[in-house]
Amino acid sequence: MKRYMRTTDDVLEMLDRAFPSTGGADWWDRFYGDRERDVPFFVEKADENLVAHLDKGPIRPEGRALDLGCGPGRNALHLAARGFDVDAVDLSATAVAWGKERAAAAAADVRFHQGDIFDVQLPYDTYDVVYDSGCLHHLPPHRRISYLALLDRVLAPGGYFGLVCFAAGAMGSEASDEELYRSGDLEGGIAFATDELRHIFDELEEVEIRPMAAQGEGSATYGVPFLLTALFRRPEPDPRSPR
Question: Does residue 37 belong to any structural domain of this protein?
Fold first, then answer.
């Protein structure tokens, strides 16, 4: 059928095909298949920014948490250990299996889901914390539309959205969105600058945007200097607003 396009999803799926080299589930299964690879985030440590926000505020360790692109579950396990009811999603069945092994070893109660973050069936409608460490920067630009729609759907009013992504000037592609479509290649992941995150998430309240603090090998938390961290809060409805 030549004239099939009639919905926004049709357009998004067509644009997905503009990036044939972007890793799908099979690619990520191979990536996570060798656990001995020298990959910094294979460690069993939570992100230093997440730990700091739980230790010092403003995130209170209670309620429900959703980990997007959870990988082997290091942040999901920490959220569970801090008292959250946790769902964790990853495209890779291999990563999810590894996360389940880690959770069993730690006696951590985490529900792992293998699937696309945009289509996965979750047990709750909304979450008090939505966390993403390394998922957004592997999405093609048009999927930010899907990502924002997902946040709008699952982030509870007053809830917090935490993000870790490649930092412009440190790691990742700095090609413009238009250039990425011309090349058909995400070049290993997209780098973001502070003002770009503010623009993308302008309907959320900015709490903090800063470089990730580098952590030594003996540190209890994970931190590398080529990443950018952000924390946003979804405003609560104004009770004085007409309904």
Answer: no
